[in-house]
Amino acid sequence: MKNLRAWIAITLVLITILVANFSKQDDPSDVALLSIIKNDQNSFQQFILSGGSLDQSVIIGKSTVTLGSLLVDYERVEFLKLLLNLKNKELVFLRDDKIWASAVSKDNEDLLKTMLSLSPKQYIYKKKIGEKKRSLMHLASVNCSHKILKILEQEGFNWADEDASGASALTLAAEMNCLESLDYWKLKKANFSQLDKRGVSALEILQKKKNAALAIFASSLTAPTRNVAVIAKTERPHSFYKKRHFPKDQLTERTSFLGPEVRPLDANDTAEYSEFSD
User: Fold this and answer.
1) Is the pTM of this model over 0.70?
2) Lowest mean pLDDT among 21-25, 85-89, 136-140, 257-261
3) DSSP 3-57
4) Same domain for 210 and 247?
5) Structural domain of residue 248, as residue ranges?
């Protein structure tokens, strides 16, 4: 009797585990949508044409995400460009801060350009993300995304822009050891000595770093510029004849023995045609 009860208890536990695992499995429709986003651009286009929304949520593993966020995560730039061609204006998914943070972290120029073209410029410029109210330029600094700096600068963002904590995009790049980003701003004549609202400058931050490459970069910011004036000394060429001091009466004899590579064109065989003739 006791053995029977034990077997019943074990069976119930196994049934409970199986039911729980079955309920956690991905929805077949979600799996199909994920497959389309990963591999099938034509099916994705048909999905959009038929009224499919990128704001639709799908369950992948233990996470719930939107189709729009998956496009960014998988860097499906060509899929996003279809939205431009189809003039789909229902792009609510682009209001999600996490999607923009993900896009910036990818450091993909084509991806960011496409997303910016799908969004109102004024909205993007005013967009502040997270507790520290950081712009896309701040996020680029934090992620060392140097390839997209030029794009963001063209959109109106600046190295001196400050977040809610008072940190500028430039000082954040210095704190995160983003050498390539710093090099870009150096070429753009950014002021590394300018203090942000916290009272620190990018130069001060870099000078405290122990990284050799950063230390060399910091030194290059303070190295004096030397303007060296080069004066070219022009020496008046000497006369072929005067340099050798050929006597007038021996001119014909001397010039006739000179090789063609050193003999001047005006060295004639007769003295009366030379510059020393009377």
Assistant:
1) no
2) 21-25
3) HHHHHHHHHHHHHHHHHHHHHHSPPHHHHHHHHHHHH-HHHHHHHHHTT--TT-E
4) no
5) 240-273
